[in-house]
Protein 1
Amino acid sequence: MKKIALITSGGDAPGMNACVRAVVKTCLGKGIVPIGYCDGYSGMIENRFISLVSDDVVNIIQRGGTILGTARNDEFRTEDGRAKAIKNLKVEGINGLVCIGGDGSFRGARALSSEMDIPVIAIPGTIDNDIFGTDRTIGFDTAMNTVVDAVDKIKDTAGSHHRIFLVEVMGRDAGFIALETAIASGAASVLIPEERSNIKLLAEDLKSQNKRRSNSIVIVAEGDDAGGVKEIYEKLLPLMDGYTLRYSILGHVQRGGRPSAFDRILATRMGVFSVELLLEGKSDVMIGSNGDALHTLPIEDAVNAAAMPRLENLQVIKALKTVR
Ligand code: ADP
């Protein structure tokens, strides 16, 4: 194994840089040349890359985003697009590829791997945590902390004005961020795509929990079946008998920021492991975490099964409801 290529792909996530650092340092320590393609699969198709040296990864463990850049690329979805990428990998003499990204990136990695003989290792990096086969993805912990910090601030103003706030968090297809941050921020209720939402029941629930018209938070995943947060607000308002309601969309702030210690550690361990796996001759596997332990599973399995948040946590939120 002489040269390993590395990409960050799809949505960026805090901790990707910590992972890049770990892959680069592990490669250099083992006499392997690490190269980073810029902007995910786009750089691979357009042959834009950096030969990475120690200095490139100094002081990046604490930085959000990704120094390699990331992108979404439709050409890579075609066999012709991937053929260009494979040609570039071959000309450069790449012996292994590490792909840090979400499930879309893994579908790309899977397709690429079936069309070439270069081994591929996938590392789950997405704030959404919506990847089967791992209990944590790189970036999820940081995103949750960002949400909790923002909701704490919203609660200050909500309490002062005796308002109920709907707070929309990221999660187009999955309620991981919403469900766990609802617990961590002491929310009155949570709406997630995995559960049918009933706005009438939500109104009754909020009124009964909030008799003194103080403050309540409802966390709403952006992909909830009742609509976007504005739509939910408009449906809820007429049912709230004069309670004051506001909504807030946290948006892209959830993607950025310094990675948490948890994400740095997870990213670093996965990065080191990816190089070890390539040296052991492994291919087509994704690294997952199960508590403190890392394991592997076929990328195929990871992309073909849906990841589910812990729905029993809905009961945890219900159990804490009080009639005030
Ligand atoms: P994420 O990795 O965060 O889920 P995307 O779904 O946007 O992000 O995927 C990132 C990139 O992976 C896409 O822009 C595309 O280039 C590639 N990709 C996604 N799905 C496929 C697929 N089925 N076949 C080939 N490439 C894909």
Note: Residues 9-11, 41, 72-73, 76-77, 101-105, 107-108, 111, 126 surround adenosine-5'-diphosphate (CB under 6 Å).
Protein 2
Amino acid sequence: MFQKNVETILNRQVEREMFSSNLYLSMASWSEQNGFDGISKWLYAQADEERLHLLKIVGYINERGGKAIIPAVEAPAVEFENPKMMFAKVLTHEEFISNSINEIVAVCFVEKDFTTYQWIQWFVSEQIQEEKSVRTILDKLNLIGENNLYVFDRDIFALRTAAETATA
Ligand code: OFO
């Protein structure tokens, strides 16, 4: 049986994934406006990925006989200081999402919903990868400094492709 508390916290996650997708879309758009085409491409792809996450949760809630709610979400920021500060925000946000997923795991455990407990493990692993790839980007930004952003922007998409190949 699908417990109400599990349904509620999964719907909360639908909202958070939708916000994540919009946040990265806004960052992608800012990057495009400011000439960072590589960063923008990375963030557009990330926004698409977050949308897939929310669709996965919507599908699961409905499949279990619950009711997925498509929410209105808070508007994301539209201005960012620079790529480094922006990616620092991405990391903070992903850490928030990891905590949010862990809270779902905890609710599944309390409710003894071991089906959802097992299903949500995909998100647990995904968060490890997402945090890792953003940390790699921040390390590179720290190494190259502000003067070599052109090179970083040219090469950033290769980092995404490399991370995807490693986890395939
Ligand atoms: Fe960035 O993460 Fe979705 O889950």
Note: Residues 4-33 form the longest helix (30 residues).
